[in-house]
Structure formats: C-alpha cells, structure tokens
Amino acid sequence: MTVAALSRFQSDKEAKRVKAGLADGTIDVVIGTHRILSSEVMFKDLGLVIVDEEQRFGVEHKEQLKHLRTNVDVLTMSATPIPRTLEMAVTGIREMSTLATPPEDRHPILTFVGPYSERQIAAAIRRELLREGQIFVVHNRVSSINRIAAKITELVPEARVAVAHGQLPEAQLEQVVVDFWERKFDVLVSTTIIETGLDIANANTIIIDRADKFGLSQLHQLRGRVGRGRERAYAYFLYDENKPLTEIAHDRLSTIAANNELGAGMQVALKDLEIRGAGNLLGGEQAGHIAGVGFDLYLRMIGEAVSTFRGDVAEGQTELRLELPVDAHVPDDYVDSERLRLEAYQKLSTASSPTAARDQIDLVLEELTDRYGEPPLPVRNLIAVSRLRWLAQQIGLSEVVAMGSNLRVAPAELPDSIQVRLQRMYPGSRYFTQNGSLTVPMPRVSIGMGADEPLEDSALIEWTGTLLATIFPVQAAAAAAPAADKTSADKPGADPTLETNPRRPS
C-alpha cells in the first residue's frame, strides 16, 4: 500500500508527484489538509473519505466531497460536531456512534472561567514550570500577538517564550512547533492554529485570552490540547471584565465550565446546536433557526421523511393532530437540564406512539418520579395528554383539535345509534357525514352572576377522553382489550369458558 501526504508543507515538486499518483492510481492512501479538495486534485477510483476534525470543514468543503464521486463512503470524526451534522445524526439522516471511553490514566481538565488577571496568568505559568511542564497561551490577533508574548516574558522572566501563527512562513512555523515539542521553549503564544493536530503530552496548562470571542467548539477543542498525558491539566478561559458579556458568550462560557469531564464533547455540541440552530440541511447555510415551522413540527417532518425513505412507515398510519388549550410541559424547575427535558419528551412521544404498549406511559411516569420527584401539575397534564394521544391513535383518528369553543374530531363514521347518543349526551354537537367529522361544544363551568369559564386543564383532558370512549366504544374497548386478555391469560389455570360463564356446574 502506497501512502502519501499533501499539504502546504510539501514542495511544488512533491505535490505534483502526489497529484499524478492519485490520478493514475499508483497512490492508494493520501493524508492531507483542505488542499485535497482543490479542483486540481483528481482521483482515479475514490471509494472512502475519512474526515478528521470535521468541525474544521465548512459546508462548501463537504459539498465538494460529494461531487468527487456519488457513491463514495464518508466517515467523519469530531469531538464537537457542528450543529448541522449533529442534527442530521439526531434525526436519523446520518448514522452516528459515540466513543465515551477515555484513554487509560487520563484526568478531567480543571477549568477556570474568569476575568483577565496578570497575577493569575503569572501564577499559572510558574506552577506549570515548577513541574517542568509547558504552557499554551492563545491570543487570536496576529497584529498584537508579539506584544502579548513580550508581556508574558515581563511577567515570568525565567520562561522561554515562542510565537506561532498562520502568517509565518511554512518552514519557520514548522520549526517553532518542533522546537516547542522538543522542550526548547516553555510557553507557546499562538493563535487558534494549535486548535487541532497537536499532541504534546508535556503541555498541561492552556490560557485563552478573550475567550468570550470564541465559539463553543473552538473552546472545547483548545482545551483538548492539554491533558493528553498522565498529568493533571489546567485550562483558563479569560475575558475582559471592563466589557459586558453578551448573552450568547455567557452561555458558551457557562457551558464550557460546566462540561469539563472526559468525553463531554457531545454535551457541548448539543448545547451548540441549541444556541446556533441546525441551519439548512440541503443548502449552504451552516447555522440558522427553525422557528418558522416550530421545533416539534420540524422534527416530525424530518422523522416522517426519513421513515418514508427507509420504508418504516406502516400502510394506513396517519399522523394525529392533537391540540387542546392546556398547560402540559416539563418545567425548567422540575428538570433543569435542556438535554434531559428533551429526553423526557422523546420518551413520552415513543410511549404514546400507536405501536407502544398500553403501560409504556406509566413506566415513563415512574422513571420521572424516581429521578426528579413527584411531578408538578404541568407534567401530570402532559402524561394525561400522552395517554389521550395513544387512545386517539388506537381509534384511528387524525384530528382532535380545539377550534374556538368546539372540539373537532375526525375522521368519524358514526352509526345512527351513536349519533342519537351523541345528541343526547352532548347537546349542540354536529356530525358532518360528507367529510366524516364532528364538532362538540366544550363544557364550561359556571362561576356565578351568569358568568362561566372553561374547564381546568386536567378536567378538559379527562372530558375529551370520555368523549372519545363514548362515540367510539368498540375501538376504545379493543384498545383496552389486549391488556385485559393478557391479565386473564397470565392467571394459572385460567379457563376462558369459566370467565364468560361464571356459573358453577350443578
């Protein structure tokens, strides 16, 4: 197997030889930077593309990968996938697997977030020097990076300081990094050029200046430059205390401070998805929002499209539209983590699906109670709505929607006897045979002086369930039958004939 490299560190002669080898197939594996994606690089028979540090590649680069060959297999790897890629994985468009086991003898990186302090910087550098370690200082402005390096030398005169940034000539930049790796320097003042690709086990302290100007993925990747050996590592994220932090910057710094355990990249990426949004899955926009259609509808549409493409949708299955004016949700003060709240919603959604067992919702309620305590009223309403959704889907309804003062139910094919019962029990109801739907006035409670008000949330949900059981008695009984049949069948020595005819023989 012939392996070659392609980057800006190769000479023109070497690069020309590699390109020719890729075109005629004499080179089997090429390892390179973004230069591989240039239009002048041609492949004879490209079959596999492995993208390491996927967050460093933009949407345009990935579109170029697709154009290389239509049936190429792509494996992307990242500690913090960009929001668009993560969202595609979460919704099932792309397959995803996670590696959560850290290397042996690794320790979590102690993380500090606070205002810029020269005294603290000097103390952090000296502490690292005492254990003969090395330090990264990240300052992402080339115009003032030499001034920062001079300041470090002034604060810690005994430290040997070097500077690295992308505008240095290739040979000089390479030499600086090699010298730092060989411990000829103690402190490397650099831009974010060190964000990926460096593995220096002796460097175990990183100081990031103006951390509020970095993205979440950058902050996590920079923190990953230290702690790559057996020593305890330290990361300092500093901001200018004289300038106010934006709300997004505060969220980023809070997230990076809270998620400092090993393997926290997925939690950081999920928070980044929450802050930035998923963007356009099919276009060039990497970041954006989905407020136009709403989060729930958006995920449902994506899920339906993916299921249809995979052939997972059962024939005749209809999507239920259940809309009631009730307060049913998981409050922040009950489950304070956004990720755990989404997990609870997902479990309830699965438990209320048409194929779920009848007691699945009860199991979710038991889990919530065990993990977070007695659920408040909005959560109990959410559980009741989930049970109502399961019943409506068992009946085969597509709409249970509050429209003004009426409740619309569809589709509905009611025999004459049920229509008579409907008019008797729910005066003012209307049945429309032409489109197979009905409307029922929602009850109101008198509060005196000729005034009234709508039912409370829990009472309205219970009333809706009773209504469905009244006008669809056969389907509702069939939905409850499997659990009853299983209970009787599980009794030792149970005989169906004795259940239907309880009289003892004479």
Description:
The chain is built from 17 helices and 17 strands. The chain is an alpha/beta fold and 506 residues long. The chain starts with a strand and ends in a 6-residue tail after the last helix. It is elongated and about 90 Å long. The strands form five sheets. The chain has a six-stranded parallel beta sheet with strand order 5-10-9-6-8-7, with helices on both faces. The protein has a five-stranded mixed beta sheet with strand order 11-12-13-15-14, with no helix packed on it. The protein has a two-stranded parallel sheet with strand order 1-2. The C terminus is likely disordered. Helix content is 41%, strand content 16%. Helix 1 links the parallel strand 1 and strand 2.
Fold topology:
Layout: E1 3-6, H1 12-24, E2 29-32, E3 48-52, H2 59-68, E4 73-77, H3 83-90, E5 110-115, H4 118-130, E6 134-138, H5 145-155, E7 161-164, H6 170-181, E8 187-190, E9 203-208, H7 216-223, E10 234-239, H8 247-258, H9 265-276, H10 295-310, E11 321-323, H11 338-351, H12 360-372, H13 377-395, E12 399-403, E13 406-410, H14 416-425, E14 430-432, E15 437-441, E16 444-448, E17 451-454, H15 457-471, H16 473-490, H17 496-500
Parallel strand pairs: 1-2, 3-4, 5-10, 6-8, 6-9, 7-8, 9-10, 11-12
Antiparallel strand pairs: 12-13, 13-15, 14-15, 16-17
Helix pairs in contact: 3-9, 8-9, 11-12, 13-15, 15-16
